[in-house]
Amino acid sequence: MTTGFSEGLRARIDNIFARYPNRRSALLPVLHLVQRERGFIGPDDEILVAGLCGLRPVEVREVLTFYTMFRREPAGRRLLQVCTNLSCAIRGGGRILDHLRRTLGLEPGQTTPDGRFTLVEVECLGACDKGPCLMVGEKLHEGLTLEAVDKLLRESG
């Protein structure tokens, strides 16, 4: 449970607010910052962010559930995001996702028991001409084959 934001995090949030004429407009950057700091955005974080931004908690929840880049639960040490939108699907994104499901024994949204990997299905990673794509942590990998995915898993352990 969260009891509040640290002074350092609160100062960085205030720096974000200084760039926006309306605190409500700063919601996305504030959420990104909180997630970067904490690893995910928990229920107490939603309430704190809502209060700081002048929003109702339900408005923050709506944003968190709409955008797939926000996590509401802790992720494994390596977050695996597989793009399955139309462009990547045509180029094998579904095959990559199925391979990861079998290899890791996970469904999207789950984390391996050892906490190494969390598997997430996303709508778009912004590289539609280079699919299928997989983001491992903050690094995008394009034009993947099953062999390349296996190599990434070994190197990301």
What does it look like?
The chain has 157 residues and is an alpha+beta fold. The protein has two domains: 7-66, NADH-quinone oxidoreductase subunit E (Arc Repressor Mutant, subunit A); 78-156, Glutaredoxin (3-Layer(aba) Sandwich). The chain is 46% helix and 11% strand. It has a four-stranded mixed beta sheet, covered by helices on one side. Helix 1 (7-17) packs antiparallel against helix 2 (27-38), helix 2 runs antiparallel to helix 3 (43-53) and helix 3 packs across helix 4 (57-66). The two termini are 29 Å apart. 24% of the residues are buried. The model has no long low-confidence stretch (mean pLDDT 91).
List the defining traits of the structure above:
4 strands; Glutaredoxin; Arc Repressor Mutant, subunit A; 157 residues; alpha+beta; 2 domains
| Class computed from helices, strands and strand pairing | alpha+beta
Major sheet attributes: 4 strands, mixed
Would you identify the regions where 5 or more consecutive residues have pLDDT less than 50?
none
Strand content: 5-15%
Number of domains: 2
Encode the helix/strand succession as letters: HHHHEHHEEEH
Shape: elongated
Query: What is the annotated CATH architecture of the largest domain?
Result: 3-Layer(aba) Sandwich
- Please give the alpha-carbon distance between the first and last residues: 29 Å
| Number of contiguous helices | 7
Mean pLDDT: 91
Radius of gyration: 17 Å
The CATH C-level class name of the largest domain: Alpha Beta
Quaternary state of the chains: single chain
Question: Which strands sit side by side, in order, in the main sheet?
Answer: 2-1-3-4
Question: In CATH, what is the homologous superfamily of the largest domain?
Answer: Glutaredoxin
